[in-house]
Design goal:
59% of the residues lie in helices and 14% in strands.
Length: 242
């Protein structure tokens, strides 16, 4: 479908974003980009044509755009020009360079100071609404009348987790509610923990594996992004209210 042939006025786009309650998000991203551009200029941070080309090539490989004609067809589908695409790449690379310039030296320090929050656990969990049911299931699992996985598959209030027999996956300590985090990281592998009550219901949990905190490249990027986002919010607020 060639949407580019349909005529839409800029005002219609703005009105649609407002009606769908998406205008603030887009508006904020534009302010972010203004802050980034200004800060990069002040620090003489630039993006070279070679860097743009390397990122464009990476995106082509990722999208399997092997020929120039494939790339042009994809750009037409996105309703953007090659110049638009390159400008977007430049903005994203500028974001990355500025973030690294401002906070790259702080990531390891932040990780070390907050290491405990980055400990991970591979976890099983299920939640039921009734406290008595939760306690009865705890006893049944302890007595091996039913397995934890069977109980999760039968009783968990969360349908997606129920289909996974209670498997949550690997999560960070900070993602858990404080009381649950304390109980989980004080427990033993394979031990049934709970029932613990929250607003969601009564939880039973079981640890599959404890994973020590590690500053992986992915974790580095997450911390860097969080620090940069906090700085951006502060700069935007200053721009608005000063």
């Amino acid at each position: 479908m060639n949407l580019a042939r349909a005529s839409i006025e800029p005002e219609e786009i703005v009105n649609y974003l407002k009606q769908q309650q998406q205008f603030q998000e887009v508006y904020q991203k534009i302010l972010y980009q203004k802050v980034i551009t200004k800060a990069a200029q002040e620090r003489n941070i630039t993006i070279t044509p070679e860097e743009i080309q390397a990122e464009a090539d990476r995106q082509r490989r990722e999208k399997r755009l092997e020929k120039a004609a494939d790339t042009l067809a994809w750009l037409e589908e996105q309703m953007i020009t090659p110049d638009d695409w390159e400008a977007g790449i430049c903005d994203r690379l500028l974001w990355q360079k500025l973030a690294e310039s401002l906070f790259g030296q702080e990531v390891e320090k932040y990780f070390a100071q907050n290491r405990i929050n980055f400990e991970q656990v591979s976890l099983y969990q299920f939640t039921v609404a009734d406290a008595k049911v939760a306690q009865e299931l705890f006893y049944q699992i302890e007595e091996r009348e039913i397995s934890f996985y069977e109980a999760a598959n039968l009783y968990d209030l969360d349908e997606n987790r129920r289909n996974q027999c209670g498997f949550v996956g690997s999560i960070d300590r900070w993602e858990l509610k404080p009381d649950i985090a304390t109980a989980v990281f004080s427990g033993q592998i394979g031990e049934v923990i709970g029932p613990l009550q929250t607003q969601e219901g009564h939880h039973l949990l079981m640890v599959k594996e404890f994973l020590p905190a590690e500053l992986t490249p992915k974790r580095y990027d997450e911390i860097l992004e969080g620090m940069f986002k906090e700085w951006l919010d502060s700069e935007v607020n200053y721009m608005i209210y000063s």
